[in-house]
Specification:
Residues 83-184 form the At1g61320/AtMIF1 LRR domain. The protein has 206 residues and is α/β, with parallel strands linked by helices. Helix content is 26%, strand content 28%.
C-alpha cells in the first residue's frame, strides 16, 4: 500500500513538472484518466486551470477506478472557477466528464459560456439531477447522459443537436425543439438501445 501511495505521488509530481515546462501557448486536447482519490484534488484543479489557460479545445476527465470491483471516488468539480459571469471558455468544442460531481446548473453554465461546444458526455455524475438546455445559438450536436443515478429530468431546445443518448432510470424528457436530431439512443442501467426518431417523437413530444 505504501508503495502504491508513493507511486501515485510520484506520478502527480511528474505531471505537475511536465505541465510547468510546457511552453506552447495553445493545446488541442487534454485528457486526465486515472483513479482519483481525495489527495489528488488540488493537483487535478491545477491541471484543469492549465488546460483552460491554454485554450483547450477537447477536454476529457475520466476518474473510473482501475479495477471494476472498486468503488470509484468522484472528483468534485471546482464550481467556483466556472460559475463567474466572466468565465467564457471560447475554445472548448468537446467536454467529457466521467465520475465527476457537478450540478445541472454548472452544465447549463458551460453550455451558455462555451460558444463552440459541440460534444458533451457526462457519465456517473452523482449530483446531476435536472438539466435544461435552452439556447437558440447553441452549437451542441452530441449530448450523452450515462448512468447518473439521481438524474430526474431534462428539457431540450437545441437547434443543432444531432445525437442524444441516455442510459439510466426512467426520467422526464421533454424535447421542445431539436429539428436536426436523427440519432437517439435510450437504455436502462445495463443496456443501450437505439430507438427510431419517429418513436422518440411519438413517445416524448406532444
Amino acid at each position: 500500500m505504501k508503495g502504491l501511495k508513493f507511486e501515485r505521488e510520484k506520478f502527480l509530481q511528474w505531471v505537475n513538472h511536465t505541465l510547468k515546462s510546457y511552453r506552447v501557448s495553445t493545446i488541442d486536447e487534454f485528457r486526465v484518466c486515472f483513479e482519483f482519490n481525495d489527495g489528488s484534488k488540488s493537483h487535478v484543479d491545477g491541471w484543469i486551470d492549465f488546460a483552460i489557460s491554454k485554450g483547450v479545445k477537447r477536454l476529457k476527465l475520466d476518474f473510473t477506478a482501475a479495477e471494476s470491483y472498486k468503488r470509484t471516488r468522484c472528483y468534485m468539480f471546482p464550481n467556483e472557477r466556472f460559475t463567474s459571469e466572466k468565465t467564457c471558455i471560447k475554445s472548448l468544442t468537446s467536454l467529457t466528464l466521467k465520475y465527476i460531481r457537478l450540478t445541472g446548473e454548472l452544465l447549463e453554465h458551460f453550455l451558455s459560456n462555451c460558444p463552440l461546444l459541440e460534444r458533451l458526455h457526462v457519465d456517473h455524475s452523482e449530483d446531476l439531477v435536472n438539466l435544461k438546455i435552452y439556447c437558440s445559438s447553441l452549437k451542441l450536436k452530441y449530448l450523452h447522459i450515462i448512468r447518473c443515478l439521481k438524474f430526474k429530468s431534462i428539457e431540450i431546445n437545441a437547434p443543432n443537436l444531432e445525437s442524444f443518448g441516455y442510459v439510466g432510470k426512467l426520467i422526464r424528457l421533454h424535447v421542445h425543439s431539436a429539428p436536426r436530431l436523427l440519432d437517439v439512443r435510450i437504455g436502462g442501467m445495463h443496456s443501450l438501445h437505439i430507438m427510431h426518431l419517429a418513436l422518440f417523437r411519438a413517445t416524448f413530444i406532444s
